[in-house]
Automatic annotation (TrEMBL):
Family statement: Belongs to the IMPACT family.
Alphabetized Pfam families for the sequence: Impact_N
Organism expressing this protein natively: Flavobacterium arsenatis
Top-level lineage group: Bacteria
Protein name as it appears in the record: YigZ family protein
UniProt domain Impact N-terminal: residue ranges: 22-126
Amino acid sequence: MEIKDTYKTLAEPSEETLLKEKNSKFFGYAFPIETEEAVKEILETLRKQHSGAGHFCYAYQIGTDKISFRANDDGEPSNSAGMPIYGQIQSFGLTNVLIVVVRYFGGTKLGVGGLISAYRTSAQMSLEVAEIIEKTISVHYLITFDYKNMNKVMRVIKEKNLELISQKMEMSCEIEIATRKKNAEHTFDIFNSMFEIGIKIKE
């Protein structure tokens, strides 16, 4: 079975999009994120920017192996906002993404069907203007060895095109490397079979 070691996310935050529906305004935003903390910060910024808005509905998904996601209706009828937004993250096949739709109420009720459609469309618009990129999932290893084995280790890193993240060079050396997930097991085996060299996954 081939290991999937790429995922799609956003290169940078999208431009603001605006959808008008029966005098209600829906501002859409999409952001690349790595952590749930980032969600809070972005929401705070948008709340300041749109202090007169009634609803800040959002959905996000984080992770590649372990997925965590959340959909929030922020006071709109249950499942009329957060889930339609989350559906767009799924239909674009993205992860590490947050979409926020900010609604200004225009005086006319849209009904649940109208809301679902408006939030879905607004989320879709924000992703259509965003730049979607493919990223590689890496596995990080710590390699430990005595200084005298330095050349041996460096040769493998070079031959296998491994990414060097950090290095501590003293009498006993420690190097952090990253490799594509699909090559991870092979990389581990090479170092693991070498004499006087330790390797472990960096959590």
